[in-house]
Amino acid sequence: MRIVFKTLLVLASIALAFICYRSIMDPIEFDREKNIRDKAVISRLVDIRKAQIAYKDSKGVYAASFDSLLKFVKEGNVMMISKKGELTDAQLEKGMTEEIALALTEEDAPKYGIEDYYAFKENFRRDTSYVSVLTSVFGEGYKIDSLAYVPFTNGEKFELEIGENTTKSGIVIPLFEARTPYKTYLNGLNKQEIINLTKTAEALGKYEGLKVGDAFNPNNNAGNWE
Fold it and tell me: What's the rounded Cα separation, in Å, for the pair 57 and 181?
């Protein structure tokens, strides 16, 4: 009986030590993996923000769906203006503007203190060209088709929503929001830790996940991690 008792005591001690070890290591391992996934999701949300800003700059509103957003990024073009030369303070004080400078005639040059008209026209230029949205916003080789999908999931998409806010002066401000909850991109990790994160966020009145922008309140398209 003593041998059996000692064996059981040893096994119980081992089990208790393992439980203590896991109670310490589980949160550490969860946080380590969560940080990796957070960074990947945040990077994707930042890219969604870039695409939405380009869409709004072109169309005056945000894209209501990823289909519209991706089509714009893949097929759209944006105007690029390359600048050569700057107006001096003296020229600005005389009423010179870029529009006037570009249309300036030799007869009007003295009016703005320009002695060498031809040298000025050669050194002050504004050339307009058009480049694809994809290249201008993300650069060559960016895999735009992945934009809508949440990293570390089996094809789950970010939730995308648009809205608007009207100021006291009657100005309508377009808004957008892209988000994904903890339970989606942390799926497969410690379930209790995910539940704890979700409950903490809910108790604080915060979104239980990562998001960028806000479909109801203007926040300058900030992410909730910023």
Answer: 28
